[in-house]
User: What shape does this take?
Amino acid sequence: MRLRYTLKGIETTNVLGNCLSMVLGPGDLFLLSGDLGAGKTSLTKAIASGLGIEEKEVTSPSFAIIHEHLNGRLPLIHVDLYRLGPHADITEIGLEDYFDGENVVIIEWAEYLETPLVETALKIDLNFVDEQSREVCLTGKIWIWRERFLLLDDCMKASDE
Ligand SMILES: Nc1ncnc2c1ncn2[C@@H]1O[C@H](COP(=O)(O)OP(=O)(O)OP(=O)(O)O)[C@@H](O)[C@H]1O
Ligand SMILES: [Mg+2]
Assistant: This one.
């Protein structure tokens, strides 16, 4: 099932990140894809901040591919595959070790993964509309995400009022 939003400005991306941080649980995997500069890192920062991780810790992991943030409500692992390019080999970077049922794992440039990791992942596709706005499409399997999509949508609507 799907949810779509137009994110008018970084503030709305921050709202989405905050709402996502409230519905996510241990072991969640978010796969972020879409246009260059569409707001993947911004969204990850907002999720981290919702988990109680200090803002200054979360920078785009463009040199280190994996950043661990262990001081929040849940451990957050932020991965950026951009530098690996297409056909990223996740066993090579040791990603599998993070899927322990506790870590929340967020992967930027997930379209570079050769094979889908798990079908329970939430796919988040962010795209450029214009300088001032972005579009986001969230896709998840209905039996995992239905309840949480309802909560997420309530949260988004509440902050719209
Ligand atoms: N909804 C939005 N509306 C307008 N600008 C936004 C929105 N969300 C993020 N931005 C801005 O877009 C720029 C790029 O954001 P960010 O670095 O998060 O993108 P990214 O998808 O991680 O980029 P990359 O593809 O390089 O990893 C930043 O200046 C950010 O403030
Ligand atoms: Mg980024």
About this structure: The chain has one domain: 2-158. The longest helix spans residues 142-158. The longest strand covers residues 122-130. Strands lie at 2-8, 29-34, 66-69, 76-80, 104-108, 122-130, 133-139.
